[in-house]
Amino acid sequence: GSGAKAASAQPPITVPDFVQSMKSFYKSPQEAFQALDKNNDGLLDLSEFVGCTGAFTPPLTRKQAEYAFDGFDTYHDKKVNTTEFFGVLKTGRFYQTPEALEAVRMPLSKVTMADFKNRMGAVTPQDAFDALDKDTDGFVARKEFLGSTKAFVPPLTRQEAEYALSGLDADHDGRLRPGEFRGALELGGFFRKPEVLAAAGYGPEAETPVRATPSKQGPAPAKAKAQVPVRDEEPPPHGRGEGDG
């Protein structure tokens, strides 16, 4: 069992080692989890984990990555969820018990991009950016963004706004460019890397400074929500002899 591994004198990697390597690449554990979770299903599998931790500085060896993954996987289901990931980082030791994770569990004020867009209302990303850019200098400063939480319906909490801001600020300079904001919204996700935005045409070089105040267009009509097809549940097949004779 994993107990023996946990008790071994010198583990291949400790949580502080992991955090130090992770911080060389990502600003926060939230950002790291989002980046490691390649298919955005809210779970890390071993291949995602090994692939990304090889890019840390210093990179994790395969042995370290497997040890760390097992150490995060408190529920032994070969997946690491957010409770396991953030809980283990918070306790500072791999191979925790589920009880220990519950004890440190902290609700994460994440907001999804879909939710963020819904709460933004039926405005174009550019109009939303202009509304947030109170001093019209072509950037949305941290203070402007955090001061505009009531412009969203329902309003963003301070924690949700902090999360959204860090997810939109691709180059981590503490303010939003129009391309960062529009790019994240149009590509449909937070924590997009600057090179991904640039490749999609949202890099800084694609932006022209706006001198005149653009004419405000009316809000776009709200799009009708697509109907999700409902699968008909098939009745379970009857067991043999059930209700017969």
Description:
- There is one protein chain.
- This protein is mainly alpha-helical and 245 residues long.
- The chain folds into 2 domains: 15-104, Orthogonal Bundle (Recoverin, domain 1), CATH 1.10.238; 113-200, Recoverin, domain 1, CATH 1.10.238.
- It has 13 helices and 4 strands.
- Strands 1-2 form a two-stranded antiparallel ribbon. A two-stranded antiparallel ribbon has the order 3-4.
- Helix 4 (46-53) crosses helix 5 and helix 6 (82-91) crosses helix 7 (98-104).
- The longest helix is centred in the N-terminal third of the chain and has 11 residues, at 62-72.
- It starts with a helix and ends in a 46-residue tail after the last helix.
- The model is unreliable at 1-7, 210-216 and 218-226 (pLDDT under 50).
For the residues shown, what is the average pLDDT? Answer: 81
Strand content: under 5%
CATH class assignment of the largest domain: Mainly Alpha
Note the main sheet: 2 strands, antiparallel
Helix segment tally: 13
Number of domains: 2
Looking at the structure, what is the overall shape?
elongated
Order of helices and strands: HHHEHHEHHHHEHHEHH
| Spatial strand arrangement across the major sheet | 1-2
User: Which radius of gyration do the C-alpha atoms yield?
Assistant: 23 Å
Low-confidence stretches: 1-7, 210-216, 218-226
Helix content: 40-55%
CATH superfamily of the largest domain: EF-hand
Structural classification: mainly alpha
Distance, first to last CA: 51 Å
